[in-house]
Design a protein that fits this description.
- By secondary structure, this protein is mostly helical.
- It has one domain (2-114, 122-259).
- The protein contains 9 helices and no strands.
- The chain has helices at residues 2-27, 32-60, 68-90, 96-110, 127-156, 168-201, 209-230, 235-254, 256-259.
- Helix 3 packs antiparallel against helix 4 (96-110), helix 6 (168-201) runs antiparallel to helix 7 (209-230) and helix 7 runs antiparallel to helix 8 (235-254).
- The relative contact order is 0.11.
């Protein structure tokens, strides 16, 4: 099962690479047919990645969220799933070039990591918490990645002069929609993490670098939502916050490598 999981991961990696090229051709080359191919390969890449994660879950006996390799795959899956939802919701494909690039990059990074399945250490031997806590991270990180994509495209086309990119108003709305999904998921991530920390380590909050970075990320997106609702922030300022927020996501994801802390053992 573990080998089959890795083979389907590799197939997903290749398939998403093809999808990325198709979205690039669609966006830059302005080939409408290429967009359909991009969606086709992205959907199939998502199915292959789902199969890979499912086989790994079956082989290990627990949710595939216990190390950096597994969470990198899950991060990519969350990004793809969020993008496909937004593509369907807003009927556009230009976001795919950046969103799929992020997912493809996560899989490329995962390919450099050990893929072995090790027994869970004692702190992680809580299947319910492992599954729900990290599932919230997958939702929030995936939607924040799509919000970042919308923010980048907004800054590129903020004057609305690039005809092959979505209108700035549409990109602004996509970014807001993504955060409206990701923000409560990030809140649940923090709450469940605190409950799990009390069980595993005897304290709800320890100012561990990983949990502090996750809280800081949540606060950035809270500022974004507050500024948009109360101060009517739109446009460049809102897009800049979306980019800053995703920078915090990536710092949270990688920060344990150089900051240490209680999460170092798992890479989560």
């Amino acid at each position: 099962m573990a080998k089959a999981s890795y083979y389907t991961f590799t197939a997903s990696f290749i398939t998403l690479g093809v999808a990325l090229l198709a979205y690039l051709w669609y966006t830059i080359g302005q080939r409408r047919g290429a967009g359909r191919y991009g969606t086709f390969f992205t959907v199939n890449g998502a199915l292959l990645l789902t199969t890979s994660l499912g086989l790994r879950w079956f082989a290990s006996g627990h949710a595939p969220y216990s190390n950096q390799f597994e969470f990198s795959l899950s991060f990519a899956w969350g990004t793809i799933a969020s993008y496909l939802y937004l593509e369907h919701r807003f009927r556009l494909r230009s976001l795919g070039f950046i969103a799929v690039t992020i997912a493809f990059g996560m899989l490329a990074y995962a390919s450099t990591l050990p893929s072995r399945i090790d027994p869970l250490i004692s702190a992680l031997q809580n299947n319910a918490m492992l599954t729900t806590h990290v599932a919230m991270a997958i939702i929030s990180y995936g939607t924040f990645a799509c919000g970042f994509a919308a923010g980048v495209l907004y800054l590129i086309n903020r004057k609305g002069t690039i005809s092959f990119l979505p209108a700035p108003e549409v990109l602004d709305e996509i970014g807001h929609k993504a955060v409206m999904i990701g923000f409560p998921a990030q809140a649940m991530l923090l709450i469940l993490g605190a409950l799990w920390a009390n069980v595993a380590w005897g304290a709800y909050w320890s100012w561990d670098p990983k949990e502090t970075a996750a809280l800081f990320t949540w606060l950035i997106y809270g500022v974004y939502l507050h500024a948009r609702a109360q101060r009517h922030w739109r446009g460049v300022r809102a897009a800049s916050l979306l980019i800053l927020g995703f920078g915090a996501v990536m710092f949270t994801f990688y920060g344990n490598y150089f900051l240490g802390g209680l999460h170092t053992y798992s890479g989560l």
